[in-house]
Write a structure and sequence with these properties.
This protein is an alpha/beta fold. It has 2 domains: about 230 residues, Aldolase class I (TIM Barrel), CATH 3.20.20.70; about 70 residues, no CATH class. Helix 3 packs parallel to helix 4 and helix 11 packs antiparallel against helix 12. The relative contact order is 0.13. The model has no long low-confidence stretch (mean pLDDT about 95).
């Protein structure tokens, strides 16, 4: 496909793998990029020395463009910036912060900048900050999410009407039919996370992958809204949060309950009881582990078939 997203990233297919913490290492990013999409290394869970190793490995595993996802609230962000420049990462996806803070820095080094938003207000701010494209992520998505709980179906056309930039849809997209629907709403590319968690190349723990495959409709929910809203599989930790919130626990108590390393414990170490298990609603659709290349090919084939079917209506 030849559109603004494929031209911007110099890729064949407008399929972007999300930069998920603890799940998106160099192996997954390289596999998706080699398949014609855009792979992303999720730097939010990496110390600088770990990120450097992933950048070196990814550059040796693919000669295609890849990206780094950089949460702007990351404490060692200056070191990450240095590594991104040092290893000539061509594209950065920023999230969880003000895009105006570092966009000019990236662009001064020839780096394409994409910012992830959950509402129209932030999409407009990202455009004003000078980013090259926007990811609009709906309420269905896994991990940290918008407080407004706006679904992808509502969010994408509103953002499309508000900005002129290339637009990528995210949240609840796990197959070619959903991708085609996102394009009908005004997107020019899709960002997919949960489906790639269930890939062989994902760095998620095998126990977490199996929990994703076992997830049914209604098994995920958006919680911890007093802190930073996050969509999780319901487990023992989630039940503890529910009990605390029902008892009227203040934010300070919820911070103490959350502690440190919950996401790592759940997704990377495989503690299905006490860890955070971040995944999207589309997990109910996912029922098998696949190679990343097969996932990309399957989504694209179904997208093309759906597009042709709709053209006959």
């Amino acid at each position: 496909m030849d559109n603004r997203i494929t031209k911007l990233f110099k890729i064949d297919l407008p399929i972007i793998q999300a930069g998920m913490i603890w799940c998106s290492g160099w192996e997954l990013a390289a596999a998706v990029s080699n398949s014609g999409g855009l792979g992303i290394i999720g730097a939010g869970s990496m110390y600088p020395d770990v990120l450097e190793k992933h950048l070196i490995q990814c550059k040796s595993a693919t000669n295609k463009p890849f990206a780094v996802n950089l949460p702007l609230l990351y404490p060692a962000i200056e070191q990450h910036l240095e590594l991104i420049v040092k290893y000539q990462v061509p594209i950065v996806f920023t999230s969880a912060g003000n895009p105006g803070k570092f966009t000019s820095f990236f662009k001064s080094h020839g780096i394409t900048v994409v910012h992830v938003v959950s509402n129209v207000k932030f999409a407009l701010k990202a455009q004003e900050a000078g980013v090259d494209a926007v990811v609009a992520e709906g309420f269905e998505a896994g991990g940290h999410n918008g407080r407004e709980e706006t679904t992808t179906l509502c969010l994408i056309p509103m953002v499309r009407d508000a900005i002129q930039l290339p637009l990528i849809a995210a949240g609840g997209i796990g197959n070619g039919r959903a991708m085609c629907a996102a394009f009908a709403l005004g997107a020019e590319g899709v960002q997919i996370g949960s489906r790639f968690v269930a890939s062989y190349e994902s760095s998620a723990h095998d126990a977490f992958k199996q929990a994703v495959l076992a997830a049914k409709e209604g098994d995920t929910t958006l919680t911890l809204k007093q802190l930073t809203p996050v969509r999780l599989i319901k487990n023992q930790f989630y039940q503890q949060v529910q009990q605390a919130e029902a008892a009227g626990a203040p934010a300070e108590s919820l911070h103490e309950l959350l502690g440190r390393g919950r996401a790592k414990k759940g997704m990377f170490e495989g503690d299905l009881d006490e860890g955070e298990l971040e995944i999207g609603q589309v997990s109910a659709y996912i029922n098998q582990l696949q190679p990343a290349a097969e996932i990309v090919r399957e989504i694209w084939t179904e997208f093309e078939a759906t597009r042709k079917k709709l053209a006959t209506l």
